[in-house]
């Protein structure tokens, strides 16, 4: 599949994606367009056996999946929930689940499995990291705190954040935001926002139809591009490719191309060429 932006940027390698909590319960991952364009290599982590088997059965040559639970490096108990997407190292919070009647049965713990976690910084299989997608039901902050060296390479992080926490002692959006800002990232966009109806209200007989209550969101952070001196040429190239293909953030991609052109890292006229390619979309 042809990619004009890749021709313009000529990166030195494929974009490296790490997907922590790769369970395909939420459908296609945001980096699917890059996979279709053969621009990425994916390393995914999924400790739930059934979900791992599904990933392995469908994977392409550009994907590999490992059974590790990524966290703080300690031994924990994995709470297997009736809803696969709610399985977590944390205990479901009964009081929070009582607020959302439809979610409550999915949060029922049906098994408890002792499991060793691995720190992101200690996973040898990850040599390079450009895009991190992470959704592990409340365990995200521990991954960030124990993965600072690996994350220093990253230019984009898509993380599920919670406005109403569904697990005991789960970090909320504010704690995630502070940690990622301290590591040099800023919020860029919402990839998805979940509203949920507060029990016992049912709107027009539709138990999943929400009014206003925010529950969760997939929030995309990017390396702070207002400080371009902190990004290498290669980081700018992968940032441009990711935001272009995954989030259609053509303005940020153009900014990266501009910076690279100013540095002489891409050919003169690259901005004009990129803008011209957008007109054909």
TrEMBL record:
Keyword S-adenosyl-L-methionine included in the entry's annotation: no
Domain called Methyltransferase FkbM: residue spans: 19-186
PANTHER family: NODULATION PROTEIN, SLL1456 PROTEIN-RELATED
GO BP terms, alphabetized: methylation
GO molecular function annotation: O-methyltransferase activity
Protein name: FkbM family methyltransferase
Keywords: Methyltransferase, Transferase
């Amino acid at each position: 599949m042809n990619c004009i932006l890749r021709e313009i940027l000529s990166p030195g390698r494929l974009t490296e994606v790490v997907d922590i909590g790769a369970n395909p319960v939420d459908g296609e991952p945001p980096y699917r367009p890059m996979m279709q364009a053969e621009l990425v290599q994916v390393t995914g982590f999924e400790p739930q056996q059934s979900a791992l088997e599904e990933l392995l059965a469908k994977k392409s040559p550009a994907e590999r999946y490992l059974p590790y639970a990524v966290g703080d490096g300690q031994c924990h108990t994995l709470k297997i929930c009736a809803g696969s997407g709610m399985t977590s190292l944390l205990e479901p919070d009964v009081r929070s689940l009582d607020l959302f009647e439809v979610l409550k049965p999915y949060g029922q713990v049906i098994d408890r499995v002792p499991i060793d976690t691995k720190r992101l910084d200690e996973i040898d299989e990850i040599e390079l990291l450009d895009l991190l997608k992470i959704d592990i039901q409340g365990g995200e902050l521990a991954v960030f705190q124990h993965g600072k060296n690996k994350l220093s390479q990253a230019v984009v992080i898509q993380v599920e954040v919670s406005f109403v926490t569904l697990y005991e002692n789960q970090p909320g959006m504010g704690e995630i935001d502070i940690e990622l800002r301290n590591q040099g990232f800023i919020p860029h966009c919402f990839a998805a926002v979940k509203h949920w109806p507060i029990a016992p209200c049912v709107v027009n007989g539709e138990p999943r139809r929400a009014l206003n209550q925010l529950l969760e969101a997939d929030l995309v952070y990017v390396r702070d591009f207002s400080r371009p001196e902190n990004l290498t040429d290669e980081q700018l190239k992968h940032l441009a490719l990711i935001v272009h293909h995954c989030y259609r953030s053509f303005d940020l991609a153009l900014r990266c191309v501009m910076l690279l052109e100013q540095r002489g890292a891409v050919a003169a006229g690259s901005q004009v060429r990129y803008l011209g390619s957008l007109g054909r979309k």
